[in-house]
Structure formats: structure tokens, C-alpha cells
Amino acid sequence: MTIQLRGSQMLVVGAGIMGAGIAQVAAQAGHAVLLFDAREGVAREAKAALETTFEGLVVKGKLTDEAAQTILSRIEPIAALEVATHVLLVVEAIVENLELKRGLFQQLESLVSPQCVLATNTSSISVTAIANGLEHPGRLVGMHFFNPVPLMKLVEVVSGLQTDPHVAEAVFDLAKAWGKVPVRTKSTPGFIVNRIARPFYAEALALLLEQAAAPQVLDACIRAAGFRMGPCELMDLIGHDTNFAVTSSVYEANFYDARYRPSLVQREMVDGGLLGRKSGRGFYHYQGDGAGVPPLPMALHDAPATAREVVVHGEGSIADALEQAATKALAAQGWGPARARDSDWTGVAIDGARLVLTDGRCADELAARWGLRDVVVFDRPGVLPPPAGTALAYATAGAASQAWRTQAPAWLAAFGFVPLPLADAPGLVVARTIAMLINEAADAVQQGVCSVTDADASMRLGVNYPRGPFEWLAWWNAREVVALLDALDAHYRGERYRASPWLRRAAAPT
User: Fold this and answer.
1) Residue 382, pLDDT above cutoff 90
2) Confidence band for 1, pLDDT divided at 50, 70 and 90
3) What's the pLDDT score for residue 290?
4) Does the 310-421 domain belong in CATH 3.30.750.190?
5) pLDDT at 87
6) Average pLDDT, stretch 252-267?
7) Average model confidence (pLDDT) across the chain
């Protein structure tokens, strides 16, 4: 059975930001769009706002005036759903409330033909639950757009337990025809993006709860790994009430799995009305001059003291980058580092003291294991070779000498980094965040929520990550990711950091 939706007349219910954006994209693709909102006058106001948007596009030369008028003429605000009995597609974009959505679709079923496809733009509610009670539940599918709809390419096509595969495929093809990048997902809590993205916020909140670092330090480290925004500034932008609500919903829907547990830090902010940009204050202040993320307190580091012996340990791209950086740093002294490729750790030994790439164990644990005082662990660089001035977190063993406390960041600075001190937290910032993103994606694939390819596309296009989780995994490797997760699990002694069975299989020797 083939369902043809291209060019069909359609109805968009809900004329807020998302609904108006969906109507714009559909009209630009040639659809005649009926636009309805239960609030009187809102649909007309939405079309008027779109007219202003198109005027701006004409001024910028992105549309001709004739094309803009043609697209606008395809959008018709209506005051009653009964006007839309003949449409072949309905896209719902109302408030995120199960009972309201379910009631709307039951009402629509009494108006439209049995052949009409019903799509919900829900970002987190079960499509299976919304379809419960419909006479034809097979025709309901999720069509989750991302804001702003005209600019964001990703569309999650969400199949509930009763969604007809032909309906899902028709909506998938339609999204492609609209110039979007559709991905297929099962109706599970958070779908793809809102599920896999949870650790991006959760690891920062966990570090803040431990008082490991200030928000601007965490944000600087994550931005240095290639992300456009750090987790704290992004939560401020989203709104802590919204972010906390999504986390709570995913946590509850997963039967209170510890991996998704909300943060006491964020709950306190919500309770106090510190919601981020929209309230004027979140992690940062947004009122007056200098509003936003404050500059980092920058420490100046003298050149490191002359060393007698420098040895780069380990194999792989990070060890190679460290060797190049050490060679450059030592050039003025007329000699370069030695290389020990068969070591079981990655980093640099300087006259017996060690700068160690984090494997998830704390600096204190490594110092005790090796019987050394002078141990510093540093975070995983997210970009190789790291550009000069790349922020990098590091932590120092408690028993380290004062000389090494000074020399370790001096050497990191000589290697081209901006060293940012953290408390001795396992996995530091970038390493633990990326490992958990990979782990969450691996579990999603394990459970049939999505494919590897769709997980990567979703995170790159839906939340602008520099890499998808499996692209991060290819850049790293499964064995080391599992080892880091196991170290976190041993440190915290909870279920949160358990490694995915999919990831353990990928890490197993072949």
C-alpha cells in the first residue's frame, strides 16, 4: 500500500512557534495549509507574523516578492476544525499534555476521512499512549520537528506500537520532500535526541553538585571539545524549568532508572525561579552590561623549568599530538622527548612526575597505585591536533608537591593548552560527558530505538553536536570508553554509569 502525501491539502493544529513554522515549511513545499488554534485570533496573528518573516526574506534576496505572496496565499487561518474535513494530513503542535493531545485526535477522527494521516509533533509523550482510544490508531505517527522549524533539518519520525509502517514511511518520505533529514525511531521516552542528550546536562550538573568546578569552567571545557555551547549556558538558554521537566519525564518514563535521575542543583534553581535567560538569571546573569557567561579567571604560567628527561607514553592520536607538542616545547633546549609506545597509560613523564590522560580514575587513585606523589590527570582533548589556547581540565593528586602543582599546568600551557584546575573528579569533564553520550546511544541501538546512522544524524542535526555519538566512538575506541565507564561506576557505586551491553560487545577482543 502506497500513501501519497506530497502536495496534499493539510491541517496544522496549534499556531504557536512550532505550528507556524510547520505551516511555513509545508506551504513552501507546495501544500495548501489550513492553520487552526483554539485561542481566538492566534492563527491569524501567526500568518501576519509569517508575512513579516517573508518580507525580511525578500529584502535579503532569499525570496522574490511573487514567491513570498504565493507561499502566503497557501496558508489559510480557520476558526473551526469542521472546515478541515477533506484534508489528507493533520500535524498537531499543541501543548505537551497527553490528555489534550489524545482528546484532539479523537475529535479529529470524527471529522476527517479514515485515509487521513494524523501526526503529532510531541517531543516526549508516547505516541502509543496518544493513539490509545482511537478507532484507527495505525494512522497516528510522530513527526517531531526542532525549533526553529524552517532552519532545523532534523525530523524524528516516531512509530508507536500500533503505527502502520506504511504511514510512517509516507511521513518519512514527506519530510524528505520538505527538505528535511528524517530519522526513524520507536516511541520510547525522549525518542532519540532528548534521550541521548541527557548526559550532556547531567554530567555538568553532577560536577556542580560535587563542587568540582564553576559553571564557566565546565562550559569552556565542553566548548573546547567542539560543542557550540557549554551545558550550563545551554540550560540557561533552554530554561531550567523546561530542561528539568524533560529530564523528570524521561526519568519517570524509564521507571526511575538512576541514569536519568534529575539533579538537586537544577531543582533548587527551578524552585528559586532562576530559570536562565527568560528570568534574567540562571547559572549566569542576563541583565545589565556584561550579561552572560563571565570571562574565565586566567592564570599566567611561566615556562616550565628545564627538565632532565621527558617521555611521552602511550599509542594513538593523543599520544602523537603530545609528542609533537613536547617536541615543540623542548626545541629551544635543543632536544626532544623520548617515546614509550608500549605503556599502559597515555601522557607525559617529566623527571618522574606524570601528566596522565584520564582513564576515569582519579589522580589520587593513580598516585596510590603507582606509589608516586606527583601525578596530575588531564581531560581528553576533543579536537586533534588541539588549536592553541584550547581549554583543558586537569586535577592534581592530593599528595603532590608544590613544585609539581606549579609545573604541571606550566607544561600543559607549554603544550598549547589553557589549563583549568578541577577538583579530583573521575573522568573530569569532556571524557566523562562524551563517554556517557556514547553509552546512551549504544543502549538506544541495543533496544532498537534507532540505528547507528540515525543516532549520529540526530545529534549532529538536532542539537548541533560536532560529532554524533558513534562518530565519537570511532575517534576514541570502545575498550577505553568501557574502561572509563567502569572506573566511574566503581567510584560512584550506582547504576548510573553501567556500560551498555552493546558497548561491551564492541569492546570485546576479536
Assistant:
1) no
2) low
3) 64
4) yes
5) 97
6) 96
7) 96
pLDDT for 68 beyond 80: yes
Q: What is the mean pLDDT of residues 384-395?
A: 89
Amino acid type, 181: V
Catalytic residue among 31, 76, 121, 123: 123
Q: Is 144 among the residues known to form the active site?
A: yes
Residues 196, 441 contacting (CB under 8 angstroms): yes
Displacement of CA 84 from its chain's centroid (Å): 37
* Domain residue extents for the chain: 10-187, 198-297+430-443+455-464+495-510, 310-421
Q: Which CATH number fits domain 10-187: 3.40.630.30, 3.40.50.720, 3.90.170.10, 3.30.980.40?
A: 3.40.50.720
- Which of 8, 31, 144, 323 is catalytic? The answer is 144
Active site residue 471: no
Q: Which of 194, 243, 249, 500 is catalytic?
A: 194
Residue 123 falls in the annotated catalytic set: yes
CATH code that applies to domain 198-297+430-443+455-464+495-510: 1.10.1040.50
Q: What is the pTM of this model?
A: 0.95
Neighbour-count burial for 80-115, b at 16+ CB within 10 Å, e otherwise:
ebeebeebbbbbbbbeeeeeebbebbeebbebbeee
Instruction: Write out 65-124 in H/E/C secondary structure.
Output: HHHHHHHHHCEEEECCHHHHCCCCEEEECCCCCHHHHHHHHHHHHCCCCCCCEEEECCCC
pLDDT score of 298: 72
> Quick one: the chain helix, strand, coil %, rounded to 5?
45, 15, 40
pLDDT at residue 289 tops 80? no
